[in-house]
Amino acid sequence: MDPAPASDGGKRWITASGFSSEPVFGAPLEVAKEPWGSWVPVDQGGWNRLGRALSPLIPLTFAGLFAKVTVAAYRGWRNSRRLPAGASA
User: Fold this and answer.
1) Distance between CA 89 and CA 75 in Å, rounded?
2) pLDDT at residue number 7
3) Which pLDDT does position 5 carry in this prediction?
4) Dihedrals φ, ψ of 55, to 5°?
5) What gap in Å lies between CA 60 and CA 75, rounded to an integer?
């Protein structure tokens, strides 16, 4: 149901379609309003919930990977300067 009241004071019913998984019968249907005004169903499937929960970890993983590579390159550069010319490790 549209939470915004209709012009006659009642509530407007909207039809939700386009689910990637079958909605649970009898469960309340969650919809979200897109910026351009249309209403879309919020998919409540397990994979979608897992994706929403793990999505913040993707940028953190890339940041950690780049930090690790940068630190390893810096340590290699710093340690290579400590060896005298012609000396072996």
Assistant:
1) 15
2) 59
3) 52
4) -60, -35
5) 22
Read off the amino acid at residue 40. Answer: V
CA distance 44 to 25: 13
- Take residue 35 and report the two structure tokens written for it: 């910026």
Q: What is the 3-state secondary structure (H, E, C) of the chain?
A: CCCCECCCCCECCCCCCCCCCCCCCCCCCCEEECCCCCEEECCCCHHHHHHHHHCCHHHHHHHHHHHHHHHHHHHHHHHHHHCCCCCCC
The encoded tokens of residue 19 equal 């689910």
List, in sequence order, every residue forming a beta bridge with 5; answer none if it has no partner: 11
For residues 73 and 62, the answer to whether their CB atoms sit within 8 Å is no
Per-residue pLDDT of the chain (89 residues; tens, 9 = 90+): 445 555 565 666 666 566 666 666 776 777 788 888 877 777 767 777 788 888 989 999 999 999 999 999 988 888 777 666 655 55
